[in-house]
Amino acid sequence: MDFATLLAFVAAAGLCVAGGWVWVSRWSRIRHLQDTPTSRIRSAAQGYVELVGVLRESGATPLTAPLSGQPCLWWRYRIEEYGGASERRSWRVIERGTSEAWLRLADASGECLIDPRGAEVLPAWRRVWTGDQRHPRGLPAHGWLDWLNGGRQYRYVEERLHAGEPLYAIGEFRTVGGGRQGLDQERAQAEVIRQWKGDFAGLLQRFDRNGDGQLDEQEWRHVRLAAGLEAEDRHRTASSAPATAHLARPQQAQPFVLSSHGEEVLARRFYWQAAAGALACLGGALWLALQLGVSGW
């Protein structure tokens, strides 16, 4: 088998596998979106839920989008540079970033804080423009006319979520505080000890009674006892606080999606992506079969 044939085999197999993955992952998202009923925040069950509401200001320091300098609640950006060999010049990503500030979703029944880390965020606001500096000084003054001007060495992509916008959210729902959570003593104690180990010098100062620079078995028993008491105290404090609803990335392999678009729009988008993945998988399989036939396998 020559190198060209081997390369064709690899490309066909890669196309088949990649298309199959897109097909399965997009179809899984469709099923989760359609099979999960929309819940009210106040009455939502603990676990995987679907919420629909409006974004509100969180009360924390307002965010500013890094490229446009405009206020928002969430941002994601990408900077690309046009370069490479004269015959193979193309856009390549040189910088990207995503905000991690929590969002506040409200519906008619209550409010929910959302940790966007790990979410597939699909905002309605998206802008693409070009310029001759790596970091732009805000949005272009003339919008699409910027493409007709010179200086297109860099391309900027910015996406944002704003207060007052609708938001569709599906993820892991938990209510924290309000005395609703039981104490997992062993896990909470281990977490306290882990935090204390982050300042090992302070840990030695508190529990190294013989001053030998290490903790023996008896001293570790004192550490565990103190950590258990600390864990109980933290639990009492958290339980006395008002109940707060949180939405975050599921621990299981379930979609975590935040979108300015409704469920129908998302399902339609995922349908098209699943169909494209299925066609790519089929095309890769046919190409692979053709290569096997040509090779006489």
TrEMBL record:
Cellular localisation: Membrane
Major subcellular site: membrane
Membrane-spanning residues: 6-24, 270-290
Any one GO molecular-function label of the UniProt entry: zinc ion binding
Membrane topology annotation: Multi-pass membrane protein
Alphabetical GO biological process terms: protein ubiquitination
InterPro entries documented for this protein: EF_Hand_1_Ca_BS, EF_hand_dom, MUL1-like
EC number: 2.3.2.27
Start and end residues of each EF-hand domain: 195-230
Pfam family, one: GIDE
The protein, known as: RING-type E3 ubiquitin transferase
Organism: Stutzerimonas degradans
